[in-house]
Amino acid sequence: MVSSDGLVRSVDRVVSLLELLGSRRTPMRLIEIAQALEIPKSTAHGLLQTLMAKDLVVRDEAQRYRIGIRLFSLAAAALDMIDLRDLARAPMEDLSGTTGCTCNLAVLDGHQVLYIEKVEDRTSALRLVTQIGTRLPAHATALGKVLVAALPDPELRGWLADHEFVRLTPRTIADADAFARELGKQAEVGYAIDNHEFHSAVTGIAAPVRDHTGATIAALSLSCLEPVDDHELEGLAASVVAAAGAISVALRSSGG
Predict the structure, then answer these.
(1) Which of 84, 90, 111, 235 shows a CA-CA span of 20 to 30 A to 158?
(2) Which fold has domain 9-67?
(3) What is the pLDDT of residues 79-125, one digit of tens each?
(4) Where in the sequence is the signal peptide annotated (predicted)?
């Protein structure tokens, strides 16, 4: 059935279902999905069965549903069209190798950051649990700060008004005004810092990756598990900015 605005109702429901599952950090039961989407349980079940048949949704042993890995494969294919991950890989490996920290590349997905590439220092005994495809609240990460700051003013105001500023650690910025002030500070220095705001053991430093128009299309970060003092932080920030700049240059040269 096509609505008055030209939308196919069944497709619209599928998209809403996928967005719902993608926004949750834990799998959902059938009844929870039906209630959240305000659709009959039978309709939700039919949609889920179809998506499972296409490997876009998977069901665990507890009869709970989550996004399937095939969705990320499709997203990765779209990203590969501009070779962003391929172009970023070498600078990320250099950055991680010279700093001993984990290097991440991410894009903004609504109110979350979506990790699209990751490089770890293999000589380190410490590991971070984030993986490609991980989504984290944008307000609690350096990556998120960079990406949100790049939004046009009207979108930024709407984002700040709509975002749920959940406190994840004692240092998490938990209100829109304070977050806006933080974005203003990062604009002055050219990078963003997550000072134990997502996890009490992690310091993050991020900088923008820009396309040929100068628009920020992704963010590059270092996540460090070792304590970082102010002097070290400045050096790491300079390295992140330089690596992000190298990726931006490569992207412009490729025509992306």
Answers:
(1) 84
(2) Arc Repressor Mutant, subunit A (1.10.10)
(3) 554 578 888 999 999 999 999 899 999 999 889 998 989 998 765 54
(4) none
Query: CA-CA distance, 202 to 183, in Å (whole number)?
Result: 20
| CATH fold match for the domains 9-67 and 73-254 | no
**Helix or strand holding residue 176 (H, E):** helix 176-189
With a CB cutoff of 8 Å and minimum separation 6, the contacts of 14 are 47, 50, 51
Q: Per-residue pLDDT for 50 more than 50? A: yes
Strand order in the sheet with 203-210: 135-137, 112-119, 102-109, 216-224, 203-210, 192-195
Question: What is the topology classification, in CATH, of domain 73-254?
Answer: Beta-Lactamase (3.30.450)
Nearest-5° Cα angle at 18, 13 to 24 = 130
pLDDT digits (tens, 9 = 90+) for 143-184: 999 999 999 988 999 999 999 999 999 999 999 999 999 999
User: What are the residue boundaries of the structural domains of the chain, listed by start?
Assistant: 9-67, 73-254
CB 34 within 8 A of CB 40: yes
Cα 92 to Cα 19, 99, 129, 169, 195: the distances in Å are: 30, 11, 18, 28, 21
Amino acid symbol at 127: R
